[in-house]
Amino acid sequence: MKLRNPKGRDDLSIQRKYKVLEVGGGHNPSTRSNVIVDKYIYNNYHRSGDLKIYNNQEFVCADGECLPFEDKSFDYVICCQVLEHVNDPIKFVKEQQRVAQGGYIETPSLIGEFLMPKESHKWVSLEIDEKIVLYEKEKVQFKAIRDYGYLFLDFLPRQSIGYKVMQKTHFNILSINYEWKDEVELIVNPDSSYYFDFFTKPWDEGICNKLLRYKSINEEFYSSLNAFLALCKNVFRSKILKV
């Protein structure tokens, strides 16, 4: 079942005693992961840089659809920006459910894929009714006109405080951040027009209210204030304390 939508992989419900697996750590694994699994050692087609493993981490070369671990070997499994690449999402997610008690899945949202498209991404996704819904790009006739990845991933995060605040207060616009326990509710290529319309029709007020939770003025104010204070804290730690 779904637990919540974390703000990112630095906001996960991982206890200190947990043994943590990461599937597809790639060039940017979590420092909290004890074991890293990756299918590709030298091929960077599915990632933005060379494979990276920290000194305290164990590396296992394996396919995420067939993990070489016993049932419930781990307390928690992290899977960031990988689900959109795989051949069989259901098999891939079932393997994580088999080897871990719970975990975290992060994948680009439909909007994120439009703005920052990748040829290596086979699937587009949305969270609808607390379920992760995936469609093959061809099935929904997905076509990205331009790649604005540099703008949203590099330029604005460096240059715009307002954008950084938006990232922290509306983190689910560009990505799906989904923390789960026991089981992930995953739907792949559903025939239902109910799901299909989210991926193919213009977004009106009804769809926006369905996908993006409405916030009151007070909620918006306090979330923006907390985001700004968190940014100030990060700047102080990095610039003054050199942490």
TrEMBL record:
GO terms (BP aspect): methylation
Alphabetical list of InterPro entries matching this protein: Methyltransf_11, SAM-dependent_MTases_sf
Keyword Methyltransferase appears in the UniProt entry: yes
This protein's UniProt keywords: Methyltransferase, Transferase
Keyword Metal-binding: no
Domain Methyltransferase type: 57-103
One Pfam family hit: Methyltransf_11
Molecular-function annotations in GO: S-adenosylmethionine-dependent methyltransferase activity
Record protein name field: Methyltransferase domain-containing protein
Lineage of origin: Bacteria, Pseudomonadati, Bacteroidota, Chitinophagia, Chitinophagales
